[in-house]
Design brief:
By secondary structure, the chain is α+β, with helices and mostly antiparallel strands. Helices cover 21% and strands 28% of the residues.
């Protein structure tokens, strides 16, 4: 169904699905997120909650929705191969939890196991979970599926991307040299989905509106992992 987006994503690194997810699907995600315990959230010093990292490991019921539902089908259609769930992060910007995300590429993913192999670098542990930077050829076989649970206009921290910046890993210096005119604003309505290659340079500004901006950022991958590694 969504394979029509493959050419655009290969060329530009992103695409917005303007046909929103069904009310039933959104209601299922809302119910799982609303059931989250307070200590599931990362919190700012003020105590305001703002994100759940590895939400597929934390929120009961979320993993089954991501491994069996419409998002996995969407990712598989776009990548035109069977896919596996890699990670899920809930971002929850609100008037009390608001921040600017500088330009970057998404390079690290959670992983189980550890190997010494070319291209698998920058091993680290964050909040008790191991992460790694996979080789570029593996990152190129990933797709981030961003589900917008709330309206996200330009004034509400909408994602800004640099089209066609996903074809290789950039250094921090190269990312810092990207000019303002190269960023493309991606306003999205509630229920709509933004698809992107994780190597696409992106950023988001602080919200200017007194309302929440919840985004469920889910990553899938079509690559077969080397022996000794498994997705979380």
């Amino acid at each position: 169904m969504y394979s029509i987006f493959s050419a655009e994503i290969n060329r530009d690194g992103f695409q917005i699905c303007r046909e929103p997810l069904s009310r039933d699907t959104l209601a299922q995600f809302e119910a799982v997120i609303d059931s989250a315990r307070e200590d599931s959230y990362r919190q700012r010093r003020s105590g305001t909650r703002y994100a759940i990292r590895n939400a597929h490991l934390v929120l009961p019921g979320l993993r089954s929705l991501l491994e069996e539902g419409v998002l996995k089908q969407l990712a598989g259609d776009v990548l035109q191969q069977p896919v596996s769930l890699v990670s899920a992060t809930l971002f929850d910007k609100s008037p009390g939890a608001n921040w600017f995300v500088p330009p970057h590429q998404d390079l690290q993913v959670p992983i189980q196991g550890r190997i010494e192999a070319p291209g698998w670098t920058n091993w680290s542990v964050k909040a008790g979970q191991q992460y790694v930077e996979p080789p570029p050829e593996v990152l190129q076989q990933m797709l981030a599926v961003r589900v917008h649970l709330d309206e996200c206009p330009g004034e509400n921290g909408a994602l800004e991307v640099v089209p066609r910046s996903h074809h290789r890993r950039l250094s921090e210096e190269e990312v810092a040299l990207i000019g303002e005119q190269e960023f493309h604003l991606c306003p999205v309505d509630a229920g709509e989905v933004l698809l992107m290659n994780p190597l696409l340079v992106h950023r988001s500004r602080s919200s200017q509106l007194p309302q929440r901006r919840r985004v469920l950022h889910v990553v899938y991958c079509a690559a077969v992992l080397p022996e000794g590694l498994a997705w979380t």
